[in-house]
Amino acid sequence: MPIQMWHTPDCPQWTIMQIGWEAGSRRIKEQDTWAKEVFPAAHERLRRTAATIEPGTPAQPFIEALSELVQAQAGTTGFVGLHQWVEILERHFPSELPDPDHTTK
């Protein structure tokens, strides 16, 4: 059930809510600035570490999927969309479910 509240300009509850909103907004901006500064170096460390893993190991699909997801994130200004996640995960972890229509081998 929606509730609508009205506050007078000098209402202490309204002032506390505004302070909370402003503090939250400031934290988000600080986190975003920090992440944009740190991400390139962290991405490079991941890339270098992934390159040292022996090809053909059981961890290879996980390493490749994570590397591709991080690269996709690097190419965006926000979040990697769900469709991109699914495309990447399907590429590295293809479905092994039976084909009920027998359209694939």
What oligomeric assembly is this protein in? single chain
Q: What is the residue-averaged pLDDT?
A: 86
Query: Strand-and-helix sequence, N→C?
Result: HHH
Helix content: 55-70%
How many β-strand stretches? Answer: 0
Category from helices, strands and their pairing: mainly alpha
Structural shape:
elongated
Unreliable runs: none
Helical segment count: 3
* Proportion of residues in extended strands: under 5%
Compute the gyration radius: what is it?
23 Å
Main sheet overview = none
Query: What is the terminal separation in angstroms?
Result: 54 Å
Describe this structure in words.
- With 105 residues, the protein is an all-alpha fold.
- The chain is 63% helix and 0% strand.
- It has three helices and no strands.
- It has helices spanning 12-51, 60-74, 82-92.
- Helix 1 crosses helix 2 (60-74).
- It is elongated, with a radius of gyration of 23 Å.
- The N and C termini lie far apart (54 Å).
- The model has no long low-confidence stretch (mean pLDDT 86).
Features:
single chain; mainly alpha; elongated; 105 residues
Outline of this structure?
With 105 residues, the protein is mostly helical.
Secondary-structure topology with pairs:
Layout: H1 12-51, H2 60-74, H3 82-92
